[in-house]
Design goal:
It is a single chain. It is built from 18 helices and 27 strands. By secondary structure, it is an alpha+beta fold.
């Protein structure tokens, strides 16, 4: 039955049917043997036709009377689908590509973060998880030919050829994509489906989710705007940026009817640079759909309500009627060059989803998580890599354990056992807005939640870091606390701020807004932004600095002593820096350096990349230190690994030694191991960096 929405009322509905059929009100009146005034009264809503008149209207359009009664479909047959290319600007302005796409790298990990965050922001029923599926599909032969036919490639190709002929960045990328397609006759598709999401609801051109995604740039229209991770409206550009052809097709199942329907709202969007064809100039963007019959948008392409056969032909079929959206990225690739094959792309998506959304996939006992995510890969419709559902406990066991303990109310104040999770409060001062009518100019104190637990043996996350998050548990950055005492236990930690705490109230909302304003488009830090300085009173940046210092202080107080229960076997990079026993002749109780910050990653070539910054005590003698890399083993001596030392700050390298002048209070060095000399592959190793005073040295 009609749902009572304005576009589904009889008048607007009938007006749309007349436009689609190319009939005037006078022509319909003549066929019904009524006056034009009667039809006009229906259109304007001043009157409703009688039941026998509705049957007569159905006869005019050659359809069943139930269609007129229910108004859940159109009276006229489906209109032809076309590509509408936006004409060039009349003032001569040109855009050689979508500037929003350059705000991010066309990297699969960035795509996974932005697209999945958008799905989380549009979660519909908050008692259930939003389900996100990434489906890689490589097509060749007849499947490729059929797909290109369905997207009207023959009409697109002249635009691609012209757009690829210019001497600028986007054109060169297009030329490469076209040449590869012609040479290999292979096309990679990446479909991102979400379920239990709102779908692209709203009208075609005015405010709503649909227009924000399909028609506009820098529009972050969200159902739950106060809880949303994104705020710039830039994240959607990663969809088009990941396509070598700048082409994305969309199929949405709506949570709220539009034009009386919810299923299979389909549209395509193409982003090309400015180009000309036969002396006609085009701005670049194009849309695939039915040509609009409304006077204000006549001739432009709009979304249409597709049938099952059409969505299958476009590789957009959804297995059920749950609300949500499917985005099909045509010519998907990873611009970083680290994922070239289908298997590598699959693996990178799995790792990226686990890294950025492990917290959203963790749930308390008896409750569903916020998010479920999976990745699969196909070749010509056949599964080549089975669907892999991301398990946060597999990828980040210690962090997942910490968050689960918090959700179940099982945290402790002080760590005494290895599997415990300690909880502490970290204050964040939210300064007043420059103009805020809701409250006085007084600052508001928000209590963020810090969770700390001993590192697990199989953790993939770097050690001794704090994952900072807000909103729907969106990971903003990995923060390494400064000046953690030497010999402190290896730990994993997570800080929950704003709505990530699970609390409600004005204080939480204000903290959420404050932190969101402090994030750049990449949402990868809390610091100075134009929005922060323009929106909040003076002192906002200082309060953020205080917040980070408070996090560091809380960490130092919680991990300063080892837990009493010790399990055999070192953790990955546990005690990354160890100072050996003092050399003969040194003074007892002499102050020793402490670790200010440590980073350790495995490069694409398998080399360990280690960076260490030190805080040095005030002494009169120079320091002579010998950093040594060793691979940890369960028994026996630890084999040394050759590496190359590089001075980074306030030190010099002499052979294998680190020389630091007297009076220097801080120093830093980096080191890279030789992967060809590793006794075992890096991914299967544990690395220990042993920094000792040089025997016979001045220290």
């Amino acid at each position: 039955m009609p749902d009572g929405r304005p576009e589904n009322d009889f008048g607007p509905w009938l007006a749309r049917q007349l436009r689609r059929a190319g009939l005037s009100q006078a022509e319909l009146a003549d066929r019904l043997d009524l006056t034009r005034a009667a039809v006009s009264a229906w259109i304007t809503g001043r009157a409703q036709p009688r039941e026998e008149t509705k049957r007569a209207i159905a006869e005019v359009f050659g359809t069943d009377a139930a269609v007129v009664y229910n108004r859940t479909s159109d009276l006229t047959p489906m209109l032809p689908r076309e590509w509408y290319h936006r004409p060039a600007h009349a003032d001569g302005g040109r855009e050689y590509g979508n500037a929003a796409a350059f705000a991010f790298d066309a990297d699969l990990s960035v795509l996974a973060k932005e697209a999945t965050q958008n799905s989380l922001d549009e979660r519909l029923d908050r008692d259930y998880a939003v389900r996100v599926r990434y489906i890689l599909h490589e097509i060749t032969g007849e499947r490729l030919d059929a797909f290109l036919h369905n997207i009207q490639w023959d009409r697109l190709q002249p635009h691609y050829e012209q757009a690829a002929s210019a001497d600028q960045k986007v054109s060169k990328s297009l030329r490469s994509a076209l040449d590869d397609l012609a040479t290999t006759s292979t096309l990679r598709l990446l479909r991102i489906d979400d379920y239990n999401a709102s779908g692209l609801i709203g009208p075609e051109y005015t405010d709503g989710q649909f227009a924000a995604v399909v028609r506009r740039q820098l529009d972050s229209f969200k159902q739950q705007a106060s809880r949303a991770g994104g705020s710039y409206g830039l994240g959607k550009a990663t969809l088009w940026g990941t396509s070598r052809f700048g082409l994305v097709l969309i199929n949405s199942t709506l949570s709220e009817p539009f034009e009386g329907r919810t299923a299979r709202r389909v549209v395509g969007r193409l982003d090309l640079p400015w180009h000309t064809i036969d002396e006609q100039a085009f701005a670049g963007p194009a849309w695939f759909g039915e040509l609009d019959t409304e006077p204000a948008h006549h001739g432009t392409a709009r979304s249409w309500w597709a049938d099952d056969e059409t969505v299958r032909g476009l590789h957009l079929d959804r297995p059920n009627e749950d609300p949500g959206t499917s985005f099909l990225i045509v010519g998907a690739h990873d611009a970083s060059g680290t994922a070239d094959t289908l298997a590598e792309m699959h693996d990178k998506l799995v790792r990226s989803l686990a890294k950025d959304f492990w917290a959203a996939m963790v749930s308390g006992t008896g409750r569903e998580p916020m998010l479920e995510a999976s990745v699969t890969a196909l070749h010509n419709g056949q599964t080549v890599i089975p669907e892999k559902r991301i398990d946060p406990h597999e990828h980040h066991p210690a962090l997942s354990r910490a968050l689960e303990a918090y959700l179940d109310g099982e945290t402790v104040e002080e760590l005494t056992e290895r599997d415990q999770v300690a909880q502490a409060s970290v204050p964040l001062t939210v300064v007043a807005r420059r103009t805020d009518a809701r409250r006085s100019a007084a600052n508001v104190e928000h209590e963020a939640v810090l969770l700390v637990t001993p590192a697990g043996e199989t953790d993939q996350q770097q050690l001794n870091q704090v994952v900072l998050m807000r909103g729907n548990r969106m990971a903003v950055r990995d923060h390494r606390p400064r000046e953690v005492a030497l010999g402190a236990m290896a730990f994993q930690a997570v800080l929950l701020a704003g709505y990530a705490t699970g609390r409600e109230g004005e204080e939480v909302e204000l903290a959420e807004q404050f932190l969101r304003a402090s994030e750049p488009p990449e949402h990868n830090r809390w610091g100075k932004t134009e929005e922060l300085t323009a929106t909040y009173a003076r002192g906002a940046l200082s309060r953020l600095a205080d917040f980070h210092r408070a996090i560091d202080e809380a960490i130092r107080s919680m991990v300063g002593k080892r837990e009493s229960t010790h399990q055999a076997g070192p953790a990955l990079l546990r005690e990354l820096l160890k100072f050996g026993s003092p050399a003969t002749g040194t003074r007892r109780n002499q102050p020793i350096p402490t670790v200010r910050a440590v980073t350790a990653t495995i490069g694409d070539d398998g080399a360990w990349n280690v960076g260490v910054s030190l805080k040095l005590p005030a002494v009169e003698d120079p320091w002579s230190l010998t950093p040594v890399a060793k691979f940890d083993v369960r028994s026996g001596s630890k084999p040394d690994v050759p590496w190359r030392l590089v001075s980074a700050e306030n030190c010099r390298i002499e052979g294998a030694n680190l020389m630091i002048e007297p009076g220097v209070r801080s120093a830093a060095f980096t080191a890279v191991t030789d992967p060809t000399r590793h006794p075992v592959p890096s991914s299967m190793s544990r690395l220990v960096v042993d920094v000792q005073r040089t025997r016979g040295g001045a220290a």
